[in-house]
Design brief:
Number of strands: 6
Shape: globular
Strand order of the largest sheet: 3-4-5-6
Number of domains: 2
Radius of gyration: 26 Å
Order of helices and strands: HHHEHHHHHHHHEHHHHHHHEHEHEHHEH
Largest sheet: 4 strands, parallel
Strand content: under 5%
Helix content: 55-70%
Mean pLDDT: 86
Structural class: mainly alpha
Number of helices: 23
């Protein structure tokens, strides 16, 4: 039964006043950080700022209360901006609410049927491709407000929007541009040099004070939306048209998939930072319930937010109580300080979203991806291009089809027929284990079959036992027939976690395709060239040398 209990219930066993104090500080901190982000995501999606705040309050509380992660912070995120704005353009707000409800049902079904781990079947080139694309699209939607351009209608398509911005760039507002630039500089400097201070809040408060005191002629939340309503979020009457379901289903699938991917990625980040282990199926059920509740209050689709989750952890969060306090903090702001929101300048919110879009883009992954196979690079380019110039739903669908074909191709290439020679027999003796002893300072694991996306979670067999393992861990790749970029990433993560646990990873016996791709991707930078061995005999010899040099004196 514990396998289906929310982490909030499990964490309350033995909950202490010290933990509550830490959760209280972290919750208030991340709640203040979430305020400008929630408003910015809403405005960028084409809805009033309160829609984003209500989402963070309602969905954020539910995700923390019912979720399977100890430290997850939920709410509106940048991943949804593009798809939400597209749904509103084509189907209106009622269509968005229906789409969010459908996505909520799909997420609950994913979790309840144990398919929470199905997200692992989305390969890394596809994830990076549409993440890059979404980041670029979000940044492009903020150019108008950052520079204060006068454009009556901003096209929803990237190319048309770029043309409109270029044609109207002469209408640039100097006060908006200066304010946005200063806010952007403050955020970047704060993030780099004063990491404990939330740069978003500094920029938001500073920019708002500047507008009020200097009476700057810039567009604000008040001038565009009339401000943020004061008081508790209230139920919004839904006018659902079930005839829209067939047309909205592809978008609902996209919202559900994005929600599942981002929430589970955020939970994984939380696990890495805390050493905990989230329950993916319970997490997806909570995400589903949150997306069923959010539209009832006029909110947007919601999911786990990686940056806010990391902020909460760095602020000292211990349990899901921190996430609930984050939602209560936002509720208090709406009840007691909503009138002040009308002075918030849109240029500052745009500068915040520029930083968010850059951070979510995973740009540092591109050089690494370019070292992979041409097929992986092609999948990434096609997914990225379709995300930017076509439609996110189409991009994901085509990316998955290409990934499936790529998977079939890689598995097919692992089938070979060759003659056994005397050299093969001699070479084989170096790989066999039958005549070798495993020293007490080493543990040996092996991978059988292709190590491609969808199979990389198998390394948990090692990670689950990481604290009881000896100092040297040898991973035999003799029977690993193929690997892809997702598999490479999994091995890199494994190496980093073993290093963090003061253990050394050795690899041995890689066949032609895995060996070639690991060399191509500069994998040796993560493990050390000397720790990649040609066969088990060499690995055992290397293990002895490493043990004597690094561990013998300390044990």
């Amino acid at each position: 039964m514990n396998g289906w209990l929310p982490k909030s219930i499990l964490c309350l066993r033995g909950y202490t006043i010290q933990q509550f104090t830490a959760d209280l500080i972290a919750g208030i901190t991340v709640g203040l950080v979430a305020l400008p982000l929630a408003m910015a995501f809403a405005i960028s999606s084409g809805v009033p700022p309160q829609a984003g705040i209500y989402t963070a309050i309602i969905a954020g509380f539910i995700i923390s209360a019912l979720g399977g992660s100890r430290v997850q912070i939920g709410g509106p995120t940048g991943a949804f901006v593009v798809v939400v704005s597209s749904i509103i353009v084509h189907h209106g707000m009622d269509g968005l609410f229906l789409c969010t409800l459908l996505a909520g049902v799909l997420l609950i079904l994913l979790g309840a049927t144990g398919l929470g781990t199905a997200v692992k079947f989305i390969p890394r080139p596809v994830v990076i491709g549409f993440t890059n694309g979404i980041a670029l699209l979000i940044a492009s939607t903020q150019v108008k407000d950052f520079f204060g351009l006068k454009i009556d209608h901003v096209p929803s398509e990237f190319f048309a929007r770029s043309v409109a911005i270029g044609a109207n760039f002469g209408t640039l507002s100097v006060p908006s541009t200066v304010l946005g630039t200063i806010a952007l500089t403050v955020i970047l400097l704060t993030v780099r040099y004063v990491k404990r201070v939330p740069g978003y809040i500094v920029a938001l408060v500073g920019g708002t004070i500047a507008v009020v005191v200097l009476k700057l002629p810039v567009e604000t939340i008040g001038s565009r939306f009339g401000g943020v309503p004061q008081g508790l979020p209230h139920l919004t009457p839904l006018h659902l048209h079930l005839s829209q379901i067939p047309a909205l289903l592809p978008s609902a699938l996209t919202v559900a998939m994005l929600g599942a991917i981002e929430s589970l990625l955020s939970a994984v980040v939380g696990d890495r930072m805390t050493g905990d282990r989230h329950n993916p199926n319970v997490e997806l059920i909570a995400q589903g319930v949150a997306n069923l509740a959010s539209p009832l209050f006029g909110g947007l689709p919601a999911t786990g937010a990686i940056a806010r989750t990391a902020t909460s952890i760095r602020s000292g969060a211990q349990t899901p109580i921190a996430g609930m306090i984050h939602a209560i903090t936002l509720l208090a702001v709406v009840v007691f300080a909503a009138p002040l929101a009308r002075f918030v300048p849109l240029a500052v919110l745009s500068s915040i979203l520029f930083v968010v879009s850059y951070n979510m883009g995973e740009w540092k992954e591109i050089p690494h991806l370019l070292k992979m196979t041409k097929a992986d690079i092609t999948v990434w380019i096609v997914t990225f291009g379709l995300t930017v110039f076509a439609d996110l739903t189409v991009a994901v669908e085509v990316g998955m089809i290409l990934a499936a074909l790529l998977y079939i191709r890689k598995v097919t290439l692992t089938t070979t027929i060759s003659e056994i020679t005397a050299e093969d027999i001699d070479d084989g003796r170096l790989h066999v284990m039958q005549d070798k002893e495993i020293p007490e300072y080493a543990a040996i694991f092996r991978i059988h079959g292709p190590f491609l996306f969808g199979a990389t979670d198998k390394v948990e067999e090692i990670l689950d036992r990481i604290q009881e393992l000896p100092p040297i861990v040898i991973l035999r790749l003799r029977n690993m027939t193929a690997i892809d970029s997702t598999g490479i990433q999994a091995l890199e993560d494994l190496a980093e976690k073993l290093t963090s646990a003061h253990r050394t990873l050795l690899l041995c016996g890689a066949r032609e395709q895995p060996a070639r791709l690991m060399e191509q991707s500069s994998f040796e930078e993560h493990i050390g060239k000397g720790n990649i061995c040609p066969h088990i005999q060499a690995a055992l010899e290397r293990a002895e040398a490493v043990y004597l040099n690094e561990y013998a004196d300390s044990l």
